[in-house]
Amino acid sequence: MAWTPPDPDERFVTLKDFADYLKVAAWADDASNGPALDEALNSAISWCEGAVGPLGVDEVTYRVEPRGSSLLLPAFDLQEVVSVVSPSGVEVTPTSVRLAAAIVTLSSVEAGAYAVTVRPRVLPADSMRLAIKLVGSQLFTPRRGAGKQAGAITPVADTSGKTGFAIPNRAAEIVAPYLLPTI
Fold it and tell me: What secondary structure does DSSP assign to 31-86, as a single string?
């Protein structure tokens, strides 16, 4: 199956912006290099969102099971809880909402997952985009290819069987003030 670039690219960092950052703009649409570039970008966005929460969205819906009479959301510093829908599909009104801690308290609960739609915190977009580009550039490291014409660049394929990667220090510093708490 042939690779085609994402169209339209609506990610928080577009493939074109990422390729421009790496100074390989032509690769964004290139069938031989585009997939690896796209994979590195997707992984970087996934890492960043896992570390700080959703990026570039107005609303997010979480499906959460109640803990006692509370719903504990996997986020914090929310701007607003837009809606809470019970497992039976009925919209319910919380008795209290702690936006900073992302805890929604209900007067009564039913078994099953609630759908809680929230407006997430706003993060500094330019800083988060830079962090994504730094992480993506770590994942996608071009090298001079042996046997290729002079000046040709090819993606590095790690065949060592190692897993994981080191987060660039600058990217870690950028996201540090915004990290989601871990339990």
Answer: TTTHHHHHHHHHHHHHHHHHHH---S-S-EEEEE--BTTEEE-S--S-SEEEEEE-
Q: How far apart are CA 172 and CA 55, in angstroms?
A: 16
Digit-coded pLDDT (tens) for 166-177 = 788 999 999 999
Q: By C-alpha distance, which of 152, 146, 126 is closest to 17?
A: 126
50 and 127 share a domain? Answer: yes
pTM over 0.90: no
Q: What are φ and ψ of residue 106, in 5° steps?
A: -115, 155
46 assigned to some structural domain: yes
Q: Which helix (H) or strand (E) holds 17?
A: helix 15-21
Provide the domain limits for residue 165.
15-54+123-178
What's the one-letter identity of residue 177? Answer: P
pLDDT at 3: 52
> How is residue 135 written in tokens?
């992480």
